[in-house]
């Protein structure tokens, strides 16, 4: 598939997700970076979004719980270019009943070429980048051109 260029805006929409064993770590991380995060629009899956908003005072657009469809809601928002950064503190040592949803979410982040951090150190580096508060060019699949060139036979 051909590629096109699109900008990520200076004010980014950031998705915040954490497995149960990592929710406390994400809450502390958000509290530590509250000033920077407050400059962006935050989205969170169910319990995680509620926990972050309640403990930090940050506004978080709260979706469904991950296993109840929240991961898929975020995936749709990534595919529709509404999410620009994914911070996902996942627990590599715990089995997850909704693991296929998690893998699909990470796959979509890779397909649509958005920055992803899966632990505190990578999230620190991502958030401290000067690109975080500037417009950033990215390449992504040119899906519209792909559709326009396909022959549909009935």
TrEMBL record:
Entry-linked SMART domains = MGS
- Where does the UniProt annotation place the signal sequence? none
Q: According to the lineage, what is the superkingdom?
A: Bacteria
Catalytic activity of the protein: dihydroxyacetone phosphate = methylglyoxal + phosphate
Q: What is its EC number?
A: 4.2.3.3
Return the InterPro entries for the record. Answer: Methylgl_synth (IPR004363), Methylglyoxal_synth_AS (IPR018148), MGS-like_dom (IPR011607), MGS-like_dom_sf (IPR036914)
Residues that, per the record, bind substrate: 19, 23, 45-48, 65-66, 98
Protein keywords:
Lyase
Short name of any one Pfam family annotated for the protein: MGS
Catalytic residues (positions): 71 (proton donor/acceptor)
GO molecular function per UniProt: methylglyoxal synthase activity
Keyword field contains Transmembrane helix: no
Indicate whether Lyase appears among the record's keywords: yes
Domain MGS-like spans what residues? 6-154
Q: According to its UniProt entry, what is the function of this protein? A: Catalyzes the formation of methylglyoxal from dihydroxyacetone phosphate.
Q: Which family does it belong to?
A: Belongs to the methylglyoxal synthase family.
- Official protein name in the record: Methylglyoxal synthase
Lineage, opening ranks? Bacteria, Pseudomonadati, Pseudomonadota, Gammaproteobacteria, Alteromonadales
Q: Which gene encodes it?
A: mgsA
């Amino acid at each position: 598939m051909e590629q096109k260029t699109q900008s990520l805006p200076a004010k980014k929409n950031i998705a915040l997700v954490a497995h149960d064993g990592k929710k406390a770590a994400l809450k502390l991380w958000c509290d530590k970076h509250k000033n920077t995060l407050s400059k962006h629009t935050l989205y969170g899956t169910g319990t995680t979004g509620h926990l972050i908003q309640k403990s930090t005072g940050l506004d978080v657009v709260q979706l469904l719980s991950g296993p109840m469809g929240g991961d898929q809601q975020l995936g749709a928002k990534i595919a529709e270019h509404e999410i620009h950064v994914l911070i996902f503190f996942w627990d590599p040592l715990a089995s997850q009943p909704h693991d296929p949803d998690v893998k699909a979410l990470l796959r979509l982040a890779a397909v649509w070429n958005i920055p992803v951090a899966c632990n505190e150190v990578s999230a620190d580096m991502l958030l401290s980048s000067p690109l975080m508060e500037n417009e950033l060019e990215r390449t992504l699949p040119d899906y519209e051109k792909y559709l326009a060139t396909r022959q549909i036979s009935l």
